[in-house]
Amino acid sequence: MTFLLHWPLWASAVLVYALFLSVALALATLVSHWTRRQPARETAVGGLVPPVGAAMTAGFLVWLALLANIELRDIDDAERAVQTESAALHSLGVLGRAAAPAASAGWHAQLADYAQHTLANEWPRMSDGGGDAGAQSRLDRLKTDAITRFAAEPPELRAALRQAVQSLADARQARLTVAAGHIPSVVWYALLVSAGIVLLFAALVHARSPRSARWIGTLLALMIAAQVHAVYVIDRPFVGVVAVSDAPLRGALQQVQGAGARP
User: Fold this and answer.
1) Once rounded to an integer, what is the mean pLDDT over residues 240-249?
2) Is 134 exposed, middle or buried (0-12, 13-18, 19+ CB in 10 A)?
3) Residues 6+ apart with CB under 8 A from 10
């Protein structure tokens, strides 16, 4: 259901909240009717201990909180990777201008080509398809040219160029790693099943009081839906309305293009 990531936040939130609320109210109504049909069922339900349900709910919410914390760290890592990649690209442009004109000729165009290809081809698909072969080949060429193109330059400049290219490669790899690291489907299934169990237990505990069952189910459903929705929209750091921006990389591209246009 990745299409929901592209919906406005309020629209996806309304859908998730409505789904959990519908399940909670349906469970409360069905369990109440099922319990009141036979006295033995009412007796069995009466033996359920509410603190057990509270412990189940607390454990479930702690699990969701841990998932949210992991996803927030991924977003921080993604932003850091993009910033580092942009800074490395800018540094390579600055270092290229410090070299002799014969060595730096075409260097900024090469940097711009890498950035343009990354933004146009790799960025939109990296969350599902990983890295782009074209971007990798351009990066490999940058690594090679950082050595061969500036072979006649001072050792300090050549060392700085090699370090900047390596920083660019490491940042790109970090970006691709974070982009591919989303919550597996099996974890989502387990999370939804656990949410259903918590709502079912709440409905059973309050089955002899339908009004209380509906109120408790509503509150639990809204609380669970709020956390599930929050985890869902930040699960893929580079997809959806809550996504890491490519603005730093575009800014670095403009700087490199501007540097290459200056005589």
Assistant:
1) 92
2) middle
3) none
